[in-house]
Amino acid sequence: FDVLTGKPCWRVDTGLIMPDFLTSGGGRIDFVERRENNLAVPLLTVLESESGSRIVHVPISEGDFPTNATIDDHSVYVTFRERASRARLYVSAFGLQDGARAWTCAIPAKGASPQVFKPDLIGSLLLVNGADLDKVGGRWRARTVVIRRADGALLQEIAPEAGATHPPTMVLENGVFAFVQGSTISVYLGAE
């Protein structure tokens, strides 16, 4: 819609847009959708925001279930749960110019029912917060997986305080990368 006149600028018919998968920026609107005729295959769609014309419209999985996404100027980062083994999670980066998969990084499971939440972008890093159910104690254990955005390398897995049920708060400022969880703070210097 035109903000001044309230008149529609354009309209595009889509499939079902996945929750938490609609982002915009840099003159684009990006989302993951599923079409009624093939719900098992999610599609990455990138629209030009002024005209609504499709820049990218490609399948990003052959049946694995996308769970969350985040975006920067060049890529969309999508977390997936494997269809064959619901205990396997991974994150993939897709280029916004052509939808090509740049890399995939497996997220190691540490317990039952692994969960991942919306990834966070901090400098050159992608942080994937998640939790696993402790099979023995029956409690959720929070953790954060740190991935380098350039190549998808798994750099580190950070498990906050024992028994913590929420992912840590993360701050990146002036080259200092800090994780705060309960009464624990972990600091990393030299972050980009």
Compute the separation of the termini in Å: 38 Å
Shape: globular
Number of helices: 0
| Beta-strand content bin | over 45%
Task: Name the helicity range.
Answer: under 10%
Question: What kind of sheet is the major sheet?
Answer: 5 strands, antiparallel
Secondary structure: number of strands: 17
Short description:
This protein is mainly beta and 192 residues long. It is 0% helix and 55% strand.
Describe it for me?
The protein is globular and about 55 Å long. The protein has strands at residues 16-17, 23-25, 28-35, 38-48, 54-59, 65-71, 75-81, 89-95, 101-107, 112-116, 120-122, 125-133, 140-148, 154-158, 169-173, 176-181, 184-189. It is 0% helix and 55% strand. It has 192 residues and is mainly beta. The N and C termini lie far apart (38 Å).
Write the layout of secondary structure elements.
Layout lengths: L15 E2 L5 E3 L2 E8 L2 E11 L5 E6 L5 E7 L3 E7 L7 E7 L5 E7 L4 E5 L3 E3 L2 E9 L6 E9 L5 E5 L10 E5 L2 E6 L2 E6 L3
